[in-house]
Amino acid sequence: MSAVERSADERHLRLGLGDLPVIRTSLQYIYNLAAGLDQLGQLRAGKLEDIAFKLIGAEQDIRQLLTESVYSASLRNSQNPGAELLDYLNSLVAGDWKREVLPWEIIGIQRRYADFKTVLVSELGVLPSYFVNQKGAYDTLTLLQGGTMLFPAKLLAKVPEAKFDALEAAKALAFEMGTAAGFHIYRCLEAVLRRYWSHVSNGHAPPKVRSVGVYVAALEKNKLGDPKVVAALRQINELHRNPLIHPEVLLDQEETLTALGLVRSAIGVMLNALPDAQATTTGATS
Fold first, then answer.
1. Are 103 and 152 in the same domain?
2. Which of 125, 153, 188 is the last residue of a domain?
3. How many domains would you assign to the chain?
């Protein structure tokens, strides 16, 4: 992979997660970068034309790393030795490619590369890099980029305003923020429940207090909706939603996955009863 290809690939990965406060980096980029730069330590004296492309490739790799990559702002100490190496490489390839590269010039490359490598490895060693583990059956990429896949496929077509909370729930789950994930999971449920109420009540005004418990009471009082749906909502509200609003209640990963399963089931049944949302519906996020 060329330096230009690696640069484009890294910029693409940098944009891959939208507004998330993390950047998806390419491990292949680091591997290829190291392999390419280590050629500088293996050069031998000879005609410049025989090694010129290696020098140019290394120059492009170093420049991209220090000025365009996702690591650029964090590689402060590497900037000066990197610049010194770049200047030296540029001075060599600027000459006649038919000339001989003398041993002392090769030593100059290797010395400057060794200085740069020492500082670079030191800085890379302390960069805050993490690997996000898979949560249950949900892989990390799905949680970070395709959070709506945690919920039934009909969710966006029928309740588009739930998209934001579906995405936020998945991201919170990925980073093991169980309580935050729980809030967004239940907000998805409430969004679907509002649509469900409007449908089964034929557009009747919703309850003034728009909480799951109040909706459940209204459904029971007016004998609306599927009794199985109402029973499931009551159970979710009493066993999970109500306790979650108390500050002392914290959800761990397993509890969050359990809540997700229950809510997903209830949402799925309600969605089956709903028509697709109108194209002009507001509240959906792009």
1. no
2. 125
3. 2
Whether 286 maps to a domain, the answer reads no
The span from the CA of 68 to the CA of 6, in Å, is 11
Whether 101 contacts 47, CB under 8 Å: yes
Mean pLDDT, range 166-183, rounded to an integer: 90
Which backbone phi and psi does 128 adopt, to 5 degrees? Answer: -75, 85
In a domain, 135, yes or no: no
Q: Are 135 and 257 in contact (CB under 8 A)?
A: yes
Mean pLDDT of 56-75: 92
Residues 116-120, mean pLDDT to the nearest whole number: 95
Q: Give the position of tokens 């970070």.
A: 144
Pair (76, 172) in one structural domain:
no
The one-letter code for the residue type at 124 is: L
Q: 3-class SS at 135?
A: strand
Q: Which domain holds residue 20?
A: 3-125
CA dihedral 167, 169, 172, 177 (to 10 degrees): 170
Higher pLDDT, 148 or 237: 148
Residue 120 and residue 236 share a domain: no
pLDDT digits (tens, 9 = 90+) for 11-45: 433 434 445 567 778 888 889 999 889 999 889 99
* CATH code for the domain of 79: 1.20.120
The C-alpha atoms of residue 35 and residue 38 are separated, in whole angstroms, by: 5
pLDDT of residue 105: 94
DSSP 137: T
pLDDT digits (tens, 9 = 90+) for 236-282: 887 765 555 556 667 778 888 888 898 999 999 999 999 887 655 44
Q: What is the pLDDT of residue 127?
A: 86
Nearest partner of 63 among 140, 6, 111, judged by Cα: 6
Tokens for 59, please give them. Answer: 């120059």
